[in-house]
Amino acid sequence: MSGCLFCKIIDGGIPAQKLYEDDEMLAFSDINPMAPVHFLVIPKKHVENIFELQAEDAALAGRMILKAREIAKERGCEEKGGRFIINAKTDGGQTVNHLHIHFLGGRALGWPPG
Ligand code: 5GP
Ligand code: ZN
């Protein structure tokens, strides 16, 4: 989608530190990490947020979660864990309107969020 920051990363117009890519998803390091391990997993097709996901996207969403888990394991976060987050819309603090799963790990995270 033109004007979408994450679509530009997918298209290569904006560089990113890619961690994984296939024909349906991309994982890359967050530019402003909030934890020692902080990456994002996004679908290649433009979906604005989790509310816009359709029933036919269920398998894709599941594969994205499993890929996020796999990368978290590769980055050494299986033993102590971390947090898988999907921010949505204004109250959720979503700043980029292209669906993304955050993973944060490598330090203890507070709860509840502010
Ligand atoms: P949100 O607040 O929408 O859940 O998360 C958006 C995330 O995208 C933020 O953590 C922010 O640091 C990250 N981000 C914003 N612009 C860029 C960029 O150009 N490159 C990368 N790698 N991450 C970005
Ligand atoms: Zn997009």
Quick take:
Helix content is 21%, strand content 22%. The protein is α+β, with helices and mostly antiparallel strands. The longest helix has 17 residues, at 58-74.
Bound molecules: guanosine-5'-monophosphate, zinc ion
User: Which overall shape is indicated by the principal axes computed on the Cα atoms?
Assistant: globular
- Main sheet record: 5 strands, antiparallel
What letter string, H or E per element, gives the SSE order? HEEEHEE
Mean of residue pLDDT values:
97
Percent strand equals 15-25%
Number of strands: 5
CATH H-tier superfamily: HIT-like
SS field, number of helical segments = 2
What is the CATH architecture annotation?
2-Layer Sandwich
Q: Could you characterize what this model shows?
A:
The chain has one domain: HIT-like (HIT family, subunit A). The model has no long low-confidence stretch (mean pLDDT 97). It has two helices and five strands, in the order αβββαββ. Helices cover 21% and strands 22% of the residues. It has 114 residues and is α+β, with helices and mostly antiparallel strands. The radius of gyration is 14 Å and the shape is globular. Guanosine-5'-monophosphate (5GP) binds at residues 5, 14, 16, 28-32, 87, 93-96.
